Amino acid sequence: MKKIKLFLASSIREFKDERNFIGDCIRKIQDEVIDYGIRINLFECEFFDNSISKNGRKQDEYIKELIDTDIFIALIGKTVGEFTLEEYNNAKKYNVPHIYCIFKSSVSHDEKVENLSVDLKNNNYAKFTYTTWDELEFVITKIVKELV
Known about the structure:
The chain is α/β, with parallel strands linked by helices. Helices cover about 45% and strands about 20% of the residues. The protein has 5 helices and 5 strands; from the N terminus they run βαβαβαβαβα. A 5-stranded parallel β-sheet has the order 2-1-3-4-5, sandwiched between helices. α1 links the parallel β1 (about 1-10) and β2 (about 40-45). α1 crosses α5 and α2 runs parallel beside α3. The chain is globular. The chain starts with a strand and ends with a helix.
């Protein structure tokens, strides 16, 4: 069975609804591709043991998940949170094969977001935008189905 690991990064509070929605999208796609021997494993910190780490920062455990990730997706809103930026930089460091950032276009973006946009362009990573749920579903489906 072919396994595809997807790491979803974002501000948990700002993107709670979007994270749940993306999980639903991934499950729908999974239902379509399982008969073809493809399994999509979605990593979301919500489903990871959030107790205090014995070996240091909890964030370090999340970063370990990036090492063998196939797809890294970051949701970007008004700003880029410290942990989301750390996860993005580690996705680059560990050469995650597919790095995408999806920007919420209905909000104004700060300088951190603009800097991230420049970095995406300089590294030839894909940038998508969305306003509606339908647009977000289209982007997620496009990203995942390119690899299955």
